[in-house]
Write the structure tokens for this entry.
Amino acid sequence: MSQPAIPPVLCEVVRSGFVEGRHRGSLVVLGADGAVELALGDVISPFFPRSANKPMQAAGALRAGLELAGERLALAAASHSGELFHRDLVRKMLAEHGLDEGQLQCPPALPLDAQEQEAYLASGETRSRVAMNCSGKHAAMLAASAYRDWPLESYLDPAHPLQQLIHRVVEEAAGERVAAVGTDGCGAPLMAISLTGLARAYRSFVLAAPGSPERRVADAMRAHPEYVAGNRRPDTWVMRGLPGALSKMGAEAVQAVALPDGRAIAFKVEDGAGRALGPVLGRVLELLGVDGPVVARIGRAPVLGGGREVGEIRAVF
């Protein structure tokens, strides 16, 4: 039996002139016509996109008939930082649909953003389901289930009507069958597709007909990126700095981006190192001819020694 190919090195960690680490991974770029323009590593085998699936999950809630728009819809597709405005809106969303945070089935957690986490703990707060970065998605799933009079206690069961609907949305957007269903860190069903399928999905959202569930999700995320991520997060920087771009990361170093002209990017860093995301994304955007301050901001990843810069994490493709 042949051994799987080793993914190529996407970036390396340089300290004081020495390469002390390398991050391998796979990456795909689709052109404006949807054809593959660049493929590094394995871009056709299924993997778990983790939270990069969230736009499709939010579109599933809309297809179920849930009325969400603006900041609420952006939060439904979010891996939010747990900032106060995120937590407040999750609670409002629940109350608006006759729900409460005790019905959320995501695990209690601290805010994802380190700065926010310090402030949160200093104020005497403890781990909560609302502070968990996926609470907006869970609030939307509960609200959609309540709207359709579907069971609330089992809203995370893969056989639940809402999860079956999301399954179909993922397959339609990706243009391929879901290869496996697992469980995400928040407890929600997680659909496995290929990197190429993930890039196709993001491309389909930015090119979807105005008013369709997919386009509504993309438009809400792009209009309110601080609700998708937070004020100090790269997805927010991308969507603010590149008008019309749709950007979402996923755990274990997954990133998907679609540009308004239909070009799309999806990649996965093999070892799950999130520190590699920025340099890789910055380099891909450069290769696509996208420039501007945000590209340099995303791509810059200094390595520190004694509190001063002594190296960098740099893309090598």
Remarks:
- The radius of gyration is 19 Å.
- The chain has a mean pLDDT of 97.
- The beta strands are 9-15, 18-30, 36-40, 180-183, 189-192, 246-250, 254-258, 264-269, 302-305, 308-315.
